[in-house]
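Changelog note: in this version the structure field was regenerated for every chain. One regenerated record is shown below for reference.
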Amino acid sequence: MVTRIGIDSRYASVIHKMKITCDIKGKIALVTGANRGIGNAIVDAFLHHGATKVYAAVRNLDSAIPLTEHYGDMVEPVQLDLAEPETITALADRTSDVQVVVNNAAVFKASTPLDSDAIDSLELAMKINVFGLILMAQAFAPILKSNGGGAFVQLNSVASLKCASNFATHSASKAATYSLTQALRELLAQQGTAVLSVHPGLIATDMSDTAGLSGNAEPTSIVAEGIIAALKSGDFHLFPDKMAKRIGLAYQSFSESVIETDIAEYKTKK
């Protein structure tokens, strides 16, 4: 059962402007897609900065063995496949003590709008990246609330703001997850949950290699360390690497005057 969160218009502007901070030290965290790339780096950074435990959510439990060999019982592998909603429900039941959720797992299948497989690529991206985010938020919002608020971190991308034609279907899915992350910021603020939207650019991951963008890629650790700092500062956006920072700087004014504030004419009455 998902608890519906309604917004009282009397408090909406206050909620939108407030900053909710979260220190990872002493927290129990859940990281999806934790076995490699950015997810693996987040597990490392969280434990280095004092997290007491990290649930490493992966499709194949054996892929998390290197983490348990290194960290012992500070890392607990848990099964998750965003294509199978029942695994999200089971995961939430098993990790009811979690205080920080990082929704990092995603799929990358690149197509242009003119490719014959464009619809198939977009359907897959929507199922995993977008529907997966919705289901994760629905499952874990009540848990975060019951555990004091905590934080919900969504790995978006600079692709959510700038579409490249060669991977337009991926960009479209990330634009959708960014839009949903904005809604989650407003909704979850009411229960004291910080929401962070992470927009990496060129990061050394398998996904960057697949996209053909690994030439100037920066290490995954820059994203992980950035998440910890952004949560402490109560920021909504994180643009962690050089490319992302350049885009974030150009986007900052629009974000402050539109994304992170209230527009009176855009409010619905409930």
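Spot check on this record: Residues 1-16 have pLDDT under 50 and may be disordered. The first strand starts at residue 28 and ends at 32.
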